[in-house]
Amino acid sequence: PGTGQMYQTFLADGSVNINLGGLHYIKRNATFDKYPFFMEQYMTSGAPYIRGLYYPIDQRAIGIRKKILVELIREAAQLIMNGFTIPVNPHDNLSVYGHLFIEMCKMDNKFCRIVTDRWEDNNFWCFSTWPESIIYEDGPWSLQGIVDDDRNVTCSYNRTLLYELKRKYNITERSEALSIEQ
């Protein structure tokens, strides 16, 4: 994930990019929660000449498993050998997080404005629109928000809709908590 994903735009037409994702940790009281994080999937979505595959989010938090990785490589090989239609539909190159984010934006105009419009009354932190941060209620997207210059910043959005879409896309809560050494 991250900056390394920027290079996928240099892949040849008909290539396949496998995004293994990373793990993001959130400190919550005396534990760390973790969740899969794909970051620059918009680069895959915006490259209509490649296909993007993603490590399964329900398996990523327990590490990268050889069996799953081999399955992804085989799927990529099949796509390359059989070919695929170019241009690729941008939605076909998103992870499940990207699909949820787009659907939430379509269903909630206020949320969509917060995450896409740069306007005077909107806080900078609400532009932190990694889908994963919103979905897992991290940082300014959490109920507690974050402190910035002695101000508490919380980005408001329809959590009921978020929870409904998480159920629809079978996105469970964060992975197991890790104890913090005291």
What layout of secondary structure does this protein have?
Blueprint lengths: L14 E5 L2 E7 L2 E7 L3 H5 L4 E5 L2 H4 L5 H17 L13 H12 L1 H8 L14 H5 L10 E3 L2 E3 L5 H10 L9 E2 L3
Parallel strand pairs: 1-4
Antiparallel strand pairs: 2-3, 3-7, 5-6
Helix pairs in contact: 4-5, 4-7
Descriptors:
alpha+beta; 3-stranded antiparallel sheet; two-stranded parallel sheet; 7 strands; 34% helix; globular
The count of strands amounts to: 7
Strand order, main sheet: write it out.
2-3-7
Tell me the domain tally. Answer: 1
Order of helices and strands: EEEHEHHHHHEEHE
Task: Describe the protein in words.
The protein is 34% helix and 18% strand. A hairpin with a 2-residue loop joins strand 2 and strand 3. The two termini are 31 Å apart. The strands form three sheets. A three-stranded antiparallel beta sheet has the order 2-3-7. The chain has a two-stranded parallel sheet with strand order 1-4. It is of the alpha+beta class and 182 residues long. It has helices at residues 41-45, 57-60, 66-82, 96-107, 109-116, 131-135, 159-168, and strands at residues 15-19, 22-28, 31-37, 50-54, 146-148, 151-153, 178-179. It has one domain. Mean pLDDT is 86; it is low at 175-182. The protein is globular.
Please summarize what this structure is.
By secondary structure, the protein is of the alpha+beta class. It is 34% helix and 18% strand.
